[in-house]
Amino acid sequence: MGDPDRTRTFFDIGTVLLYTVGSSLKTYKSQRRQRRGAMISNAQKLTAPNSLIEGMVEGYRYFFNSNGHQGPLVFFGDALDVFERCLKGSDVPNLKAVLPWANENPERLEKILVALGKLEMVNLGEEFSRELATEQLHKKTRKMSVWFQLTDVCNLRCPYCYIHKKSTHMDLELGKVLIGKLVDDSARAGIEEVIIKLAGGEPTLRWSEGRALIDWAENQFSDSSVRVKFHIITNGTILPESLLDYLAAGKLGISVSLDGVGKWHDRHRFYKNGRGSFLDVEKNLEILLSRGLRPPILTTVTRDNLQGDLDPII
Ligand code: SF4
Asked: Exposure winner among 29, 199, 256, 284, fewest CB in 10 A?
């Protein structure tokens, strides 16, 4: 057993340290709140970004900043009241005049505005944006994503596809040269992690080349301070056994496109001959699940499959 007095002293020091760190953090946070509060009242006009898109789904009004970092957002209650007025170009005195609770509780108004500002849904002035950008930069791990388009060939003919189908593929030697450059440039730029995404066309049609690139890159990055990760983005119709082995070994991640269940998927994602691909994708998803792999699902939503039941996917 340890000496109880020593344990107590250690505990007391720990408490003091925690208290000191906790109270400086509190002071820092309250100073930052005050500073942001001042920025907001100085903001001339509270406006929504020009890149804002809005719409209705199943009775809910959603908003999406296409130049921001967030997905679609739905606001309720006081937040919606404030946001709707910002859409019309309100300012803080005006908000306080039209929303009685905001006048009585300016801290709540400030909190809502800061939250909307952090979500990049309301412009709170240049000073606020600058501080937010610096904060985001500090939070981010320095990651870099690189897409390797292994091929322009695909076995499906999705109507929304933007790939011009040609029988061209990425040359393996070119891929190796690119990886060599990534090894040098990422380290020089202070990047911590490089994620290589294998895409297409349908990248599993060139899986042997993809696998060769993974092996090559792992070797090339082995002496680098930069971590390298791999990910394949597939339509899920082809699942080579050796790809399953690589997935099981944790050598790469996988995302599968699925636009709904049954006919809802098949409306978009069919083969050259018009046959839907759902049954093949479903079979391969079951194989992945049976091996303990739960791939993220990528769904393209259009008017054709909007009514489809996404519950079984989610
Ligand atoms: S699976 Fe992908 S690459 Fe192939 S047609 Fe569909 S969207 Fe295009």
From this structure: 29
Encode pLDDT of 249-302 as tens digits: 999 999 999 999 999 999 999 999 999 999 999 999 999 999 999 999 998 888
pTM value is 0.62
Whether residues 82 and 182 fall in one domain = no
Minimum CA distance residue for ligand 1 atom 2: 201
The answer to the question of residue 118 being in a domain is yes
149 and 234, same domain (yes or no): yes
- Supply the range of the domain harboring residue 48: 41-137
- The H or E element spanning position 101 is helix 100-104
Give CA–CA dist 233/251, Å, rounded.
14
Mutate to test the pocket of ligand 1, among 149, 155, 156 (most ligand atoms within 8 A of CB): 156
Residue whose CA lies nearest to ligand 1 atom number 7: 161
Map 285-300 to HEC letters: HHHHHHCCCCCCEECC
Q: Ligand 1: residues whose CB is within 6 Å?
A: 154, 156-158, 161, 163, 200-202, 235
Residues 129 and 216 placed together within one structural domain of the fold = no
Helix (H, G, I), strand (E, B) or coil at 301: coil
Residues in the chain: 314
Q: Are residues 64 and 210 in the same domain?
A: no
Give the tens place of pLDDT for each residue, 128-164: 888 877 777 666 668 889 999 999 999 999 999 998 8
